[in-house]
Amino acid sequence: MPELPEVESLRRSLKPYIIGKSIQSIIVHKPKLVSGSGTVRQPLEYKKQEFETQPIGAKITDITRVAKNLILHLSNGQVILVHLKMTGQLVYQDDKQNKVLGGHPIEVSESQLPNQHSHIIFELNQGTLYYNDVRMFGYVLLYPNLDTIYKLGHFDEIGLDPFDSQFTADYLYKNLKNKKSKLKTVLLDQSIVTGLGNIYADEVCFRSGILPTRMSNTLTKKEVDKLYKAITEIIPKAVEMGGSSIANYIMADGSRGTYAREHKVYGKAGRQCVICDATLQKTIINSRTTVYCQFCQK
Ligand SMILES: [Zn+2]
Predict the structure, then answer these.
(1) Which of 92, 119, 120, 287 could form a disulfide with 30 if both were Cys (CB 3.0 to 4.6 A apart)?
(2) Residue 193 alpha carbon to ligand 1 centre in Å
(3) Which tens digit of pLDDT belongs to each residue from 246-277?
């Protein structure tokens, strides 16, 4: 599962290539991907029709992100919501076969486009944008405008983004006080702050010296300050470095992210703590492997 830094890297990399391009044609091979409102989906022929016709002639004016959703804004007011889920990929290829490729690495896409995984194809006035997906858990949904997505409640369960100016240490403290769950559980459920998956949840707990098993309402203000600092340092750094590229996630220019080299605990159970040399421990929280140092984290 891609985490926020990988999706944000992809957004930033694609942006200069697709902004200002107009959509000449769209082919939808798998109606399921453009149907429904997210996870509940069945292939709807009329959705395919709408998707293939309504955006024609519109320009892509922006690409933004809410949590791990990418949103293409069109000059006709419509928006296209893209969620790559486990195995989705976006590839922009220009007329000279140069590629900007991000998401799940699909080997055949490096040499052949379209291919058997190219389920949605946007012909632009310059170049082509492909939505490729191996297992088709992702979605690419057309909405009349951005408000509609919010009104449908698509983003209701999503907390603040680490890049949001409203995301402050006080906000984090107040909201953690109201939760009676393990810290890692709260970080993973996205309800307070979005974008921390298994990798970054472990990393921020380690950086802030807090055990991921701590009940979130027992954290002191001082501890939350450290946690806040860890989140707001680690996430931007990871974006800058193109994310972790663990679980086969690669960034939009096709290069692998390099943040994985910065991991201190994730995937390192049984190895030595970089601070105290003790052996890093492993436990399971919410059926996710969790790694921590029993001495450096309280
Ligand atoms: Zn340690």
Answers:
(1) 119
(2) 26
(3) 433 455 555 666 677 789 999 999 999 999 99
The yes-or-no answer on residue 135 being catalytic is no
Domains with residue ranges and CATH for the chain: 4-151 (3.20.190.10), 169-292 (1.10.8.50)
Concerning whether 2 is annotated as a catalytic residue, the answer is yes
Which helix (H) or strand (E) element contains residue 124? Answer: strand 118-124
- Could you read off the pLDDT of 158-187 as tens digits, one per residue? 899 999 999 999 999 999 999 999 999 999
For 169, phi then psi, to 5°, come to -60, -35
**Active-site residue, selected from the candidate residues 3, 8, 203, 223:** 3
Taking the C-alpha atoms of residue 22 and residue 58, their distance in angstroms, rounded to an integer, is 5
Catalytic residue (choose from 41, 68, 207, 264):
68
On the question of pLDDT at 82 being above 50, the answer is yes
| CA pair distance 132, 113, nearest whole angstrom | 10
For 12, 19, 27, 275, the CA distances from 129, given in Å and listed in that order, are: 15, 12, 11, 45
What residue ranges in 29-94 does DSSP mark as E strands? 60-66, 69-74, 79-83, 88-93
User: What is residue 261's DSSP assignment?
Assistant: G
What pLDDT is recorded for position 193?
96
pTM, rounded to two decimals: 0.86
236 is catalytic: no
Task: Quote the CA–CA distance of 242 and 247 in Å, as a whole number.
Answer: 14
221 CA to centre of ligand 1 in angstroms = 22
Distance CA 18, CA 60 (A): 7
Catalytic: 184? no
Q: Which of 2, 55, 114, 162 is catalytic?
A: 2
